[in-house]
Structures are given as C-alpha cells and as structure tokens.
Amino acid sequence: MTLYTPYLDEVIDDPYPSYKRLRDEAPAYFVEEYGCWFVSRFADVWECEIDTRSFTVTDGLMPSQLAMPLAEQQATRQMAEGMSFGASLSTLDPPQHTPLRSAVSGLFRPGAATALEEFTRTRVRQFIEEFAPRGECDVVFDLAMRTSVRVACHLIGLPEEDVDFFVSRINKGFERDRGVPGMPQRAIDANVELFGYLEEYVARYRTNRLPHDCALNRLYDFTGWEDPIQEADIRAMVYLMLVGGTETLPKALSAAVFRLAQHPDQRAELVADPDLIPHAFHEALRYDMPTQMLGRRVVRERQLHGHTLKPGQGILYLFAAANRDEREFPDPDRFDIHRRAPRILTFGAGTHMCMGAHMARMEGRIMLQELLARIPEYTIDETSAQRLESELFQGWKRLPIRFAPC
Q1: Which CATH architecture has domain 9-391?
Q2: Strands 314-318 and 36-39
Q3: Is the dihedral of CA 11, 56, 105, 278 positive or negative?
Q4: Which of 74, 154, 222, 403 could form an S-S bond across to 378 if both were Cys, CB 3.0 to 4.6 Å?
C-alpha cells in the first residue's frame, strides 16, 4: 500500500494529514517507483540540508528531477530540449557554488533589503491606491505578484516594462492538470518562452548594461572560477532568481492575508500594533510554506531511521511537513502571531539556503503594513478564490478580498 506520493489527489488537495502520518509512521519513506526518499521531520530535514558530503544538487532539486513518473520524465526532457541550461546555484555544490554565491549574495543581504524599502513601499502604495476605491482586489495579482516581480527585476537587471510577460509565463509554467502527473504542454511551452526571452536579453546585456548594481552586472564581471563564466550559466542564474523571486512570495503573502481573515482578533492586534507584523509574517511563512519540497541526489551511504540511503537514490525534503512538526513546534497546527519560532525551514538551511530570505521578509512586511493601514478590515471572497493544484507548490492562485471602498 502506498502511504504517500506527491502526485496523489488527496495530497495535492490537503497534504497535511499525509505529512503527519509520514512524520509519525515513516519519517524516512521510500517510493520504489521513483527511487526516491521522502523525509518529513524537522530535525532530519535540517540535518540533511546541511550535509553536503552525502547529498548533491548536481542532478537538480525539483520533484520532477528526483521523483519522476514516466510522464514527468518525458515532460522534463522535452522542456530541456528548448532550454539551454548552464550551471547555477541550484545545480552546483561547493567549492564551485561558493564563489558564485558570494558574487551575488551582497544584493540580498539585510542592508540591501533595507536599501530597497523605499522602492518597494512606493510601489505597494501605488498598487493599493489603484484598488482601494473599488472595494475589492485579488491579493495575489493586484498586490503581491506585482510587487515581487518588480523587486526581482530591479535586483536582477531586467526591464520593468516586461513584468506582465514574466508573470504570465511563470504562472503558466507551474500549472498542472488534476490526475495527470507531470507538466502539461502549456507549462512546458511557457517555460521555453521565458527562457527564450532570457537567452536573447542576456546576450544583448553584455553591451547594454544598466547603470545600477544588479545581478547581471555582477555575473558578467564574475571571475571566481578557473574558466570564465558562460552566457548559459548567466541565463540559468537569471532564470533561477526571476522565478524564485516572483513565484513564492505571492503565495506567502496571500496565505498571511487569508489566515488573518480567519483570525480577526489577531488581525486587529496587528492593526493596533504594526510592530507585530514581522512576527506575523514569520508565522505565516512557517504555517503555510508555499514550496512543499526540494531535494538532492544521494552520493554517499547514509543511515536515517534504520534505513540505508544509497548513492543514486533521490531524496526530497518535505519542508512544509517539517514546519508543522510537533517535535519542533508546540501545537504546530495553530496559527499564532505571537509564536517566536527560533528557526523555520521556509528558506531552507545550510549552503543552499535561499538568498532571497531577507528580501522576502522585507516585501511581506511592507505589503502587510500598507494593506492593513489602508484596509484594516476585509473578508475573503471564497466563491472566487482558487487554490493552485501542484505537487510542488501549495497556495492561492487567486485570493479576492472585499472591503469598504477607501
């Protein structure tokens, strides 16, 4: 009997019952069909994340690369045929990973996030000013995604006038069809189109640089490897930063807005004391982590809960399951803005921890601050709300809210 796969309908609808069962009954669970382990307890995921000797990212991080039914294998190969991938932070281990990360990580540090607060707040206020008089908005598209894609473009060095193209292709690239494992053709096409755009833009950028400090400038100036960095590597890095910077934050922000609607007393506390907002967003990141899993390939035998993980096998870290582990968090299924969890796995851990963590926290804090200052009370339009159906992401595809026009 199959206890779990990420492609089961009941898991896509609501993974948390399956996650709890895994944590309790099979914290290291092997699916023979995929040759892949699924790890669900917080301490195990944390320790595996920082173990770069036993696990490698060189075969990729995604379930489509590590736990693949036949349809997904075919889709992944088909997409790769239209996308000339180079090396990026998501496919490199130390020591190659270290200088490349160092070259761009300064753009994402706490001081850099602070420096972008005015840029971010100006745009957030502009977006709220547009929809506030209507008395309704879609938190995902009208606020969160419009913000995240613009911050990502500024950091990378991509033109803000093309944000609608980026958003549409990124969203389509993660669409799935219920009951059909793997990527539908429209998702493959969207990824290929986005990568085609980046291929042309990166090639032109060498002689048409933007004047401000950005990732593209730093990547073209990178000299940390013995051999020069190639345009294929720069394209892969830009793709990684654009998708990562655009896709997950809207799900985290809309989840926070939804949970605060479910807990109006906690929302009222935030309105009365905005200093609590960073803690509330931290809790939302734990409670409703958008990225369900990422993983590695086993390169050295390792013992885990009495099992031997063998070289060549995949391993997927169920981050969202770990963030609800009662061994780490008291009463983990309770949403509580006063929780002060000292560590969460929403941004990963160790060498491949998400560089954008400080930016994401800054953007989420500012959006919640400005939204609640202008719209302290709202209701969810549940008849129009839509959840994303995906093995990789959980969250809202659309989250309309209604409020008194203001």
Answers
A1: Orthogonal Bundle (1.10)
A2: parallel
A3: positive
A4: 403
Tens of pLDDT, residues 162-202: 999 999 999 888 887 776 666 788 988 898 899 999 999 99
Contact (Cβ atoms closer than 8 angstroms) between residue 36 and residue 72: no
402 forms beta bridges with: 136, 379
Under the banding of pLDDT at 50, 70 and 90, the label for residue 261 is very high
Label each residue of the chain as H, E or C: CCCCCCCCHHHHHCCHHHHHHHHHHCCEEEECCCCEEEECCHHHHHHHHCCCCCEECCCCCCHHHHCCCHHHHHHHHHHHHCCCCCCCHHHCCCCCHHHHHHHHHHHHCHHHHHHCHHHHHHHHHHHHHHHHHHCEEEHHHHHHHHHHHHHHHHHHCCCHHHHHHHHHHHHHHCCCECCECCCCHHHHHHHHHHHHHHHHHHHHHCCCCCCCCCHHHHHHCCCCCCCCCCHHHHHHHHHHHHHHHHHHHHHHHHHHHHHHHHCHHHHHHHHHCHHHHHHHHHHHHHHCCCECEEEEEECCCEEECCEEECCCCEEEEEHHHHCCCCCCCCCCCCCCCCCCCCCCCCCCCHHHCCCCHHHHHHHHHHHHHHHHHHCCCCEECCCCCEECCCCCECCEEECEEECCCC
Helix 231-262 with 185-205: angle, nearest 10 deg: 130
Backbone angles phi, psi at 108, to 5 degrees: -120, 5
For residue 228, count CB atoms less than 10 angstroms from its CB and return exposed for 0-12, middle for 13-18, buried for 19 or more: exposed
Q: Return the bridge partners of 294, or none.
A: 317
3-state SS record for 11-27: HHHCCHHHHHHHHHHCC
In the chain, where are the structural domains located?
9-391
Residues 6+ apart with CB under 8 A from 391: 6, 7, 11, 12, 63, 176, 181, 292
Q: For residues 279-285, give the mean pLDDT.
A: 98
**CB within 8 Å of 335: residues ≥ 6 apart:** 259, 262, 263, 266, 283, 284, 287
Q: How far is CA 318 from CA 51, 67, 177, 293, in A?
A: 16, 13, 22, 5
Cβ proximity of 257 and 400 under 8 Å: no
